[in-house]
Amino acid sequence: MTTLSPQPLTAGAFAPFGEVLEAAGAFRLINEGLCRRHHDLAALDFGPDGRAGISVFEAVPRALPYDFTLVERHPEGSQAFLPLTQHPFLVIVAPDEAGAPGRPLAFITSGAQGINLRRGVWHGVLAPLHSPGLFAVVDRIGTTPNLEEYRYAEPFRVVA
Amino acid sequence: MTTLSPQPLTAGAFAPFGEVLEAAGAFRLINEGLCRRHHDLAALDFGPDGRAGISVFEAVPRALPYDFTLVERHPEGSQAFLPLTQHPFLVIVAPDEAGAPGRPLAFITSGAQGINLRRGVWHGVLAPLHSPGLFAVVDRIGTTPNLEEYRYAEPFRVVA
Predict the structure, then answer these.
(1) Radius of gyration of chain A (CA)
(2) Judged by CB atoms within 8 Å, which residues 85-104 of A form the interface with B?
(3) Which pLDDT tens digit goes with each residue over A129-160?
(4) What residue ranges define each of the domains in chain A, with the CATH number in brackets?
(5) Contact yes or no for B120/B46 (Cβ under 8 A)
(6) Which of residues 140-159 of A touch B (CB under 8 A)?
């Protein structure tokens, strides 16, 4: 079984897949100087027929080592995961290779990071590492199908 | 000085102002049964010329008693606050009375709740009660003015 060691999530390493959403870099001071606004961090894209929605996900916490075969992608829209806790979570993404996912990469968040997955990016299912596995999700609301799943022939194992 | 006692935030009490975003009520099971999706909880509204954006806010924590005179509203769009921590935060809103805010109400979140403020709802500035005061904010990105501020003649005090 192929093992993957999660890398710390950074904007640079994640750039091929989407954006890291965190209080880093430039900001505007608002509210009489008492709040920093890190402005408009995600390349949201809900396609011609979709609209933005906010949902709340509650996922069963996983543990390392974590084995998976399933990845998925959303052809019709971007998808942002915003943790409602300070717990790190696992981010699995894969490059597209002629319509199928290539070798996956694993990242682990700092505990103060969300992510936005670009439209169509292959990714693992939501994998919190602690309870409660609560996230706000900003993704495409629409009536047409927006889920493609892919199962690797062999599992990958994410190790600590 | 008028004092306000914060009520626990509930969907019913908050309904005149917007939505409570939390893992409550109906859900769809996704990800092979390992995740509950509480679907499309917020009435997002970014006006004819705006679009959705995700920003990250980091606000200085406040303490109770908390005195304020300033409230604001965004005429061009809804605004959702999603805490990136499990800390309760203070929510101050006020009904509109002929273009000016009436007597404010104070709510306190459970630690597992975000809010979406309807377009044009008068509200206090972001008031976390613990460090870090980190929130993801889903609001209107656009080029036209979208902030109206109002100062009450006398301060209100939110007590514990």
Answers:
(1) 16
(2) 85-86
(3) 999 999 999 999 999 999 999 999 999 999 99
(4) 2-158 (2.60.120.480)
(5) no
(6) 141
